[in-house]
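Pasting two entries for a bug report.
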Amino acid sequence: MEQFIDDLPPMDLMRSEKMTFVQLIIPVESAHRAISYLGELGLLQFRDLNADKSPFQRTFVNQVKRCAEMSRKLRFFKDQISKAGLLSSSRTVLQPDIDLEDLEVQLAEHEHELIEMNSNSDKLRQSYNELLEFKIVLQKACGFLVSSHNLALSDERELQENVFSNDAYVETASLLEQEMRPQSSNSSGLRFISGIICKSKVLRFERMLFRATRGNMLFNQAPADEQIMDPVSTEMIEKTVFVVFFSGEQARTKILKICEAFGANCYPVPEDISKQREITREVSSRLTDLEATLEAGVRHRNKALTSVADHLAKWMNMVRREKAVYDTLNMLNFDVTKKCLVGEGWCPLFAKTQMQEALQRATFDSNSQVGIIFHPLEAVESPPTYFRTNTFTNPYQEIVDAYGVARYQEANPAVYTTIIFPFLFALMFGDWGHGICLLLGALVLIARENKLSTQEMGNYKEKMGIEVELLARRPNGVDRDAHTIGLVKYQDPYAFGVDPSWRGSRSELPFLNSLKMKMSILFGVAHMNLGIILSYFNARFFGSSLDIRYQFVPQMIFLNCLFGYLSLLIVIKWCTGSQADLYHVMIYMFLSPTDNLGENQLFWGQRPLQIVLLLLAVIAVPWMLFPKPFILKKLHTERFQGRNYGLLNTSEVDPEAEPDSARQHHHEEFNFSEVFVHQMIHAIEFVLGSVSNTASYLRLWALSLAHSELSTVFYEKVLLLAWGVHLKPDMILDSSLVLGNVVDNSLSAFLHALRLHWVEFQNKFYHGDGYKFRPFSFASLTEDDD
């Protein structure tokens, strides 16, 4: 058997790639080029040998600061281009290769020029806005002043006719009456302030003026005919022109302070109509000149931004790469005496040849007299986990990694997730009609895969599941002549799904309940057995015979003596058409194993078989719990027997070892109590989990039944009823209802399938305590790395 297993061909995704720990000794003159070539290759994960140093204490901190400053300037250019509404040129612009120093000078010149143009443009825009507001105030305020002047004239005429027509009265008029005679606004002390304010502040502004002057003012307002651009947010704002009439210097001071607090701009408006017209013509002339100047400035600025946009993507990529190279160089140790850089890291075993070729090319291109030393080392720490995936397997690998990254060389659940996950999803989806809708949606996503390839998670999670809708609700054909005994068919009346003769019968729901519940148990037990079998392959791969004898074997015995036996009873009941009560059989297998089964007996010798299986399940519990900790203690005692002296430090054994190197050895003390408690927890968790996990698989039955019944009610009570009442159905409403139902069912089925994989399946063999292989690669750089 072992020879047969050894002869099986290896699976690509079953085990992570073999990794090797390597050391690089790079001369200073070829360090930058060597790291750049390794970044293009993207198969080496560097180890930070300067973790104890702050970022400002590292060797290439100045170069990193320069790159960060250039990145800031490039982001500034990008923001300016987007605000101007310009698009980066997609055409390839021929430009000679430029080094980092020349690029830094060019970026500084472009930034200085752009900042100066923005400053001039802001000043011109502010002047233009002030003139435009002044023009609007002149137009609106003149109407207020003319109307108030006409009102004053009419009041004066009426007063002269009624009161001051008698000459004798004028001679004997009192001082108070003389004060009440109408005079001009200047002689009587009546003044006004005109200006413009945001429309949203008018109500609060008027209320504040009324309270400050105690009602001794007259507030007139009119909306502005034009919107004015805000120089900060570049948004068009609606404003309102106001004129406030008041009397007294104290009121004037208060009104000006309130205008300043509310951000209102005040403009002087003469009372003379001829002066108003003259100022309006002058303001209009200056506005025309400023518009021409602003348009010329915008054209010049857009031309400068266009020249930058043609090279922006290339420059950003160049600076991003340079910064990544210097960040990586800061992870290396700088040897001043030998004038070289020492680095360590992990790389896949298959990539050693490619890396050596890249380093040789870097030595040749940099004209270095000394070559780069590349040699493997032994490491105590666990290597990173690296799986080579494609566009189809990557989403399933991401699902597994979301739970935990696989330990190095551990069996990868993603191999089986690619098949089992869509299968369980289909079991819970429960309706093949909605499955067709989901299939069509998945085909659209596949057709647009290239456009959607930038997303982190692919859209393949569901497209496999919709092709295996086993628990269909509406079969293709109907043949009432078909008859069954148990689940043995004597005719072939339907292509898939259950017998259509159950459709619409009174026993449809009890039959489907029983069928789907039993199928859920069968699939669950098979799924958990697969997980335990994978734990055997893990133990055999790592050479752990203890895990095989004292973990795999008792777990298989315990699970299959109880729930494997239940699965056997389900299959026998289906095949024989027996009416035995399986609940009664399983309950009394524990309570009264020696009692006669009576009519619940399914086969000869069932009672003694149940007693044997129960005894094996009871024996399997201490088998899992006690032997392994005591054997580990014995092996540890024999290994270190007679060693009264501790090992020397690593630096004394190996004088060439780096202080921060991964080659440091750590001798851990064996703690029997900790090992025993861990084994006890693991055994108890498996025993209790066997029951709870089997019950958890009943969610396959519950969700399938719920979704299928919901789809049936929705189809019969909504769609068919709507189509029967209305001659012309509302296709938009019906489509939206169908889509909502499909999305709801898909989400719930996806989440529960995820739960079954993460908890019920992977806890049987999957540790998930590894860490991902994250190599230094230019291809993985994003805008966030700027």
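Entry 2 (this is the one that rendered wrong in the viewer):
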Amino acid sequence: MGSLFRSEPVCLAQLFLQAGTAYECLSALGERGLVQFRDLNQNVSCFQRKFVGEVKRCEELERILVYLVQEITRADIPLPEGEASPPAPPLKQVLEMQEQLQKLEVELREVTKNKEKLRKNLLELIEYTHMLRVTRTFVRRNVEFEPTYEEFPSLESESLLDYTCMQRLGAKLGFVSGLIQRGKVEAFEKMLWRVCKGYTILSYAELHESLEDPETGEVIKWYVFLISFWGEQIGQKVKKICDCYRCHVYPYPNTAEECKEIQEGLNVRIQDLYTVLYKTEDYLRQVLCKAAESVYSHAIQVRKMKAIYHTLNMCSFDVTNKCLIAEVWCPEADLQELCRALEEGSRESSATVPSFMNTIPTKETPPTLIRTNKFTEGFQNIVDAYGVGSYREVNPALFTIITFPFLFAVMFGDFGHGFVMFLFALLLVLNEDHPRLTQCQEIMRMFFNGRYILLLMGLFSVYTGLIYNDCFSKSVNLFGSGWNVSAMYRASHAAEERGKMALWNDSIVRHSRVLQLDPSVPGVFRGPYPFGIDPIWNLATNRLTFLNSFKMKMSVILGIIHMTFGVILGIFNHLHFRKKFNIYLVSVPELLFMLCIFGYLIFMIVYKWLAYSATTSREAPSILIDFINMFLFPASEASGLYPGQAYIQRVLLAVTALSVPVLFLGKPLFLLWLHHGCGCFGANRNGYTLVRKDSEEEVSLLGNQDIEEGSTQVEDGCREVTCEEFDFGEILMTQAIHSIEYCLSCISNTASYLRLWALSLAHAQLSDVLWAMLMRVGLRVDTTFGVLLLFLLIAAFVVLTILILLVMEGLSAFLHAIRLHWVEFQNKFYIGAGTKFVPFSFNLLSSKFTNDDMA
């Protein structure tokens, strides 16, 4: 693992790949994930590149594999997902794998098509049997309830379709029978009546069973209908109406004997179809089970092969078209490994001429590479969400590992809540290899990916909770209070002391609702609590006033230290990029401005804590008034915190006032002096542009570097070019904007850190309110049902604690901690204008089947 303090050095290398070994070399590079390829064919369309045919072949194989996965999933066959990732297939096996998959696809499509056809025939035959069974009841009902006329003989003695009874009317009687969906029956009946003008008789009944539609596969309710009509023209209209409403029409038998024969034939055919369909499904399942064994490895191999050809399309050919040339960004620490990968690829392809590489100088800024592990990855993602670091600048993630959970814990300080969060994160860490956690829902996956952040957040919250002495809004007396109540009684003191101090007696204790402890009374305050806040403050009425003062000053101290540390980290950037003038003209004035005002505020707070005791606390001056008077220069100088305070404050203000013009004008004037005092700068410059390409500041620095190196060669016209590149107005405007922003942000950012106090107070008050409304009520109930009520109140307390105090308050503190790091801390030294190093690695390819593949 590389250094987390700043990104690794990256160089530009050129790969010379023989045409016959390029595939194997890129396969070896993809397994290692060493380099990031540059596209040398940006002006060439994707459809006109060399290996577009191979990419299309891979896409065709992906389509076949997606079809196989869908069929396997539809058959409820588990998809094996092995842990080992198979390598990219050799070129000799690609055609064999393609033929195998195409043959399997054709076979599966044919078997599936036959299965669907058999299934459709089976459903139609089942519908036909239900239709015959129900229409038989129509005939019986007509016989039993309808009157018989002379023109219509009885159906019992004559066939239903014996038309001799209709010859006197000169018309032919016909029947149409079938099934229709339940929602279309009413409209179907009205249409028949209006079109056929009453020359039809419609009988229908609902099927008790829900049948599957042969066309769509939906299981719906059906109605069986029987239509009697007179005349061929009416019959044609009836059939068209049935087609319009998508009715399933089946032939109606002419006689009862024919109906019986059809019923028996249908039963035999249904049994045969069941047998054939079962054997077809069994064969299909065997084929799918065999395909499922290799579909995972084939899918991974095809993805790797497609990635290789996509990368090969980024390479260019030499003039002989026998060698591919690629340009890659490679960490300097991995150059030897890169050479070994090329040798391995050449050896696997049995090439006579090996592939090789060489590094080339460049003025382009390399991508930023910061290696992380599962612990540091979450903190690096927080920094990268603000912006990927510029090449080789200081990486804030190293310090965010400590400062982020600590600032979160300052706002979330509660021993109980922090311990619950710590246990939840510890459970995720201990079960991080469980497959269900890696395949969980999106919200749970966010918690899982940030498990180590949650672990440190909970651990630091336990620490700050002990400092605040706050556990579910209650204090814990671990070491015994430093305050002694018995020392306030008159009987504990001599007679001469009783008249000087406000002591208690029995009458005061009985009749006073509030009793005040005086720390100036001997024996009342025996010393500070060993760790954290004394638990007696949990009983005090002025507890909120005391905690507000403590947390407000603590927030200011932490904020100023955090911002000052950010300015100091900027010095490391200037030293690394060899811009020492930025230290003297930018960083030092910024530090003086910060420390002379806000650093002095910290000094006043700490000095007052140390210099004044309980006996002299009433004589202590107000820090706020003294800090305001520092800028107002009052005529009457009151007694301050220490002797000579007014003189020191004037000196600090003078240093602050002098640092502002240096911050505004120092850097632009220095660059202007370099510009007029140097020759042709930048002519002999080799290597990288370290910070921002073609910046005005870099132009001046290049000239200074050439003078230090003693370069004397000046090309004709170089000074004219550099004069065009150097713009003093732009540099002055940029520095002025930066200086104004810094001076104002020192004030606003210091006030912004007061959110540490505000959210800590809000969290403590919410916790106290929740305890008072639920647990205090439950613990005071002493009735017969008090135990049951207490159980319900504890359950409600747990649920509300998790939802409000852990989830909602935790999310609020998390977002505020991110803001403090992005705006107040990183803004002091972090540019974040780089590009992330994205290596050509097969590990970045998904090894899981997505929901789209299974849909």
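Dev reply: Rendering is fixed now. As a check, the viewer should reflect this: Confidence is low (pLDDT under 50) at residues 141-170, 679-724.
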